[in-house]
Design a protein that fits this description.
The chain is of the alpha/beta class. Helices cover 38% and strands 21% of the residues. Helix 5 (137-149) links the parallel strand 5 (122-130) and strand 6. The protein binds guanosine-5'-diphosphate (GDP). Guanosine-5'-diphosphate binds at residues 46, 48-54, 68-69, 72, 94, 158-159, 161-162, 193-195.
Length: 217
């Protein structure tokens, strides 16, 4: 089914979009600092250390676009990137990081929540899950928040290179089953490895479909 969906034309359009210049726009500590919602946007969320920065770098083909921080959970802001002058990527604060205080954790959870609820240009949230671990209780909280915000979200498994191919597919299947009753969950899981480049063309294609940018090619 996915082969029919990801036609060579779509994959090529997606490749071209992400091959065009991308840049860091700004980091927002408050939703008031966000730019006007005048371009389609997709957001990336996940536990600290899930591989979010690496995935953003792999998507845009820029090694240092989102700095792969040595300290997990350093991202405390909504960081926005501009791709091809017509698409924004939002890097949401990581969650589930034990080293920050509870009040600090709340502060950036609230920021993520406010962003999700109020952003009319937001077309999809990609929730990143480590392929080795699958969904954890801490992710369930994120899923609940996403369902409440009623924004379409899709699960992306990361670091699939750490598993055998069949294993990653099995985690994808199990994950899909777990989220099947969740109202805002998109019924496809993308299996990726930023290290090997696996699933990156398909994720780019998913972004094009979600933002309907493929139709304006
Ligand atoms: P973030 O905290 O979610 O932004 O995660 P990072 O992108 O900083 O990655 C956390 C750690 O996982 C780093 O040590 C990365 O090198 C590693 N990592 C990220 N993506 C991959 C991947 O696709 N495969 C493997 N094997 N390691 C990865």
């Amino acid at each position: 089914m996915t082969d029919e969906l990801f036609t060579p034309e779509l994959l090529e359009a997606a490749r071209l979009t992400f091959a065009r210049p991308s840049s860091f726009l700004l980091g927002c500590a408050k939703v008031e600092q966000l730019p006007p919602p005048d371009l389609p946007e997709v957001a990336f969320a996940g536990r600290s250390n899930v591989g979010k920065s690496s995935l953003l770098n792999a998507l845009t083909g820029r090694k240092e676009l989102a700095r792969v921080s040595s300290e997990p959970g350093r991202t405390r802001e909504v960081n926005l990137f501009l791709v091809d002058e017509r698409l924004r990527l939002a890097d949401l604060p990581g969650y589930g990081f034990a080293k920050v205080s509870r009040s600090e954790a709340h502060r950036f959870q609230n920021l993520g929540r406010d962003y999700l609820r109020g952003r009319v240009s937001l077309k999809r949230v990609y929730l990143l899950i480590d392929a080795r671990h699958g969904l954890k209780p801490v992710d369930d909280e994120a899923l609940d928040a996403l369902d409440l915000s009623a924004v379409s979200y899709q699960i992306v498994l990361t670091k699939a290179d750490k598993l055998k191919r069949g294993e990653a597919e099995a985690v994808a299947e199990a994950t899909l089953k777990r989220i099947s009753k969740r109202p805002a969950a998109f019924p496809r899981v993308v299996v990726t490895s930023s290290e090997k480049g696996t699933g990156i063309p398909e994720l780019r294609a998913e972004v094009l479909l979600a933002t309907r940018l493929a139709e304006s090619e």
